[in-house]
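Q: What does the assembled structure look like for these inputs?
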Amino acid sequence: MRLVSDQSRQREYVREIASKRDDFPQWYTDVILKSEMMDYTPVRGCMVIRPYGYAVWERIQALLDVRLKATGHQNAYFPLFIPEGFLRREIEHFEGFNPEVAWVTHGGGEQLAERLAVRPTSETVICTMYAKWIQSYRDLPVLLNQWCNVVRWERSTRPFLRTTEFLWQEGHTVHRTEEEAEEETLLILDIYKDLIERELAIPIITGRKSEAEKFAGALRTYALEALMTDGQALQAGTSHNLGQHFAKVFEIKFLDADGQLKYPWQTSWAVTTRLLGGLVMVHGDERGLVMPPNVAPVQVVIVPIMPRETRDRVLAAASDIARSLGPDVRVRVDDREEQSPGWKFNEWELRGVPLRLEVGPRDIERDRVVVVRRLDGAKTEVPRGAVSRLVPEMLARLQQEMYAKALVYRDSRTKDVADLSELEDFLAAGGGFARVGWCGGDSCEAEVKQRTGATIRTLANEDPGSRRCLCCAAPAKQVAYMARAY
Amino acid sequence: MRLVSDQSRQREYVREIASKRDDFPQWYTDVILKSEMMDYTPVRGCMVIRPYGYAVWERIQALLDVRLKATGHQNAYFPLFIPEGFLRREIEHFEGFNPEVAWVTHGGGEQLAERLAVRPTSETVICTMYAKWIQSYRDLPVLLNQWCNVVRWERSTRPFLRTTEFLWQEGHTVHRTEEEAEEETLLILDIYKDLIERELAIPIITGRKSEAEKFAGALRTYALEALMTDGQALQAGTSHNLGQHFAKVFEIKFLDADGQLKYPWQTSWAVTTRLLGGLVMVHGDERGLVMPPNVAPVQVVIVPIMPRETRDRVLAAASDIARSLGPDVRVRVDDREEQSPGWKFNEWELRGVPLRLEVGPRDIERDRVVVVRRLDGAKTEVPRGAVSRLVPEMLARLQQEMYAKALVYRDSRTKDVADLSELEDFLAAGGGFARVGWCGGDSCEAEVKQRTGATIRTLANEDPGSRRCLCCAAPAKQVAYMARAY
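A:
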């Protein structure tokens, strides 16, 4: 059977992607469409995640799931529908999400007595269960996670980054004390950072959100922020200390060891399919995607160069090399006959496959394989007997180099900025993370946003020293990273 | 950190489950609630799948996913919402599903111009994409699958078996010829049978559905039917040859090698979280769940018997044994101090853990471990040095014995039945699969259903010989398996 991704009809599109330098938004759309990561659908704001994109999501799921389970979290599944009354109970939460809710009003041919929200997030429905399950301090902590879909009715959408429906995991934990909840919130922040830096090769800045930017209903929100190669920031994940807000309105109480009835402390946290968009925007280049080996659906493609008379011999050698790489390397032999090697090179470059191995009759004679790195096009000849040892090493090195390259870029675009006019210049020159002093005032935060489009991405955990607020010039209370963001 | 499933508050419930023999429905509910596989929610017809139940689903997902990928299928993700106009295009399909649809009518604070169905199944939205993606015979076959949630507004619900929302995988494939589509339909039927028999230890009868029982919009439906221990059948999965019905209304066409524009042939197929209900009803006993080792979240529980003075030594030995089992055995050491060993035995029996290992000071002295099988309570003493070799063997044997036991039961409840009065007697005596002759007439099928509650579960692929229709006594055209069903 043939795979969809191996569809062999001639396509001319490989060279048709827009220039990343000249038109970043069009380049992004071209790359994700033409690499077949996703497609648009006729359903408003909803996309299809196609097999090549979904395979990356499956990798991310596996890599995160193992980390969550290793730290004692368990998966569960809660209902898609949330009765309106539940959603209304935590007022900040309701006001934050209500404008984005899709409502089910009819079911089974009848109008419902109460509207059902299609979950925009699941705190409220999960808290109704926690109120039932938690009675004693012995029931704590509760450490649950679910992998599911959520819906937020967005006015304007962009594939992966902002869609009406998206996929995510949402963790929801309950703790005996504030300290434990804070510890969990920061543990998750660390796990996310490790996942995104180590596996997606995307450097991360973590820190608290300002009050204006925090999750609706949370006590404190911590975020992970990454810098895209157009100078805009992407919020790559969030971890919220919910305090006792939800416990109080949902009446989750436990009898502590001291005989007192208390409200527990909660957290919630999520990463979403938007990570796929980040991956594209951080690593992609003029030729298309560049996949970090750890999440690449295909890590190595072997392209046989096969003039008719040597076809069988070359294909046999290619299969042989693929087998020699063992089950830990995701390898594909592109044995399609209708396409030329050059066409295949382009297609797998567009799809960002980290290593391409070329095998032709001359290579077989000389007992060698040509290895080409997607990251920089560097070519090496490798003795055939050394391929199974060298390829995993080259993949590991590529993974590190991709992170290092992204870090150099991020740091080159991170600058101290003193005031609004400097910020405007910085943004006009391409943007990035501006390190600024901030007085802590909502009005300064709002004014900067209104004038420049930049928002506080995170508050740095450091002393502002002699810095002054970039807006009002009062002594700064905090150091903030500001950027325009997706 | 403590796991939810290890919550330590004293519970008296282990002995409180209803008798399976006396009250099967209540027993079922008690077992799944008290083993913490699921819980009811205040959301109409929706349940929570709790970690212990969800872990079984994760096992089933992993075991099926690897089979689907090995046969060339790829995962993707399509939208949750289906505009009403799409759903209406295939009329049989629409009429079949319309009564069960939940409709979204408002989003982002506004009434929608067109209602959106929350997917009851995804043929229609997927076909709109296939019409775009498929142009040439070179694009075929398309072999996609998605793991997701679906919603069907059911009048009466039962956890796992029939809920408003449930989890499933749905495969959707497109082929060049009718033969290929039929081959795929039957390949999937085989994969499902292998999964359910080998991993869930549930014997399966496969066969075609009658016209009355087939999927709305399909050409032919094949089903997998299992027998529960209350004598009722459970449809455990279905595989549909959709023919060209959807291709024609969604205008999916391809240019074949002969230059002709043709409609392709499609299939769709699904298994759902109802398999968890089947697992409970096939294997459970008066003490609770009995988990087949291949899908058991915990395969081996080690219960240390630890009088205070030997506590550390016993715990060390227990951990040591757990480690010696290696990463391929899912093992848990129940080191909770608040519960007695007897209480723990009951709890893990309720949860159906296949093997219990008991380790106490005397066992340590004698260099042995007591191993107890959940299936029949059989106890063996195993030399400590042999545990790591014998436990995997015992698990493998248990898996086979559970299948064999279920097969013996199924066969003992499968009988040839000649006419309606015999069928009534058979059902009154506890039911099971009745093998009957059927004339093929809709009215006889309807009459039997109306009079006895039994339906045609599958049509056997065999010559009816001299059989007569159980209803009208005309010469039979087919042999059918009939049963009352969930």
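The CA atoms of residues 17 and 30 of chain B lie 5 Å apart.
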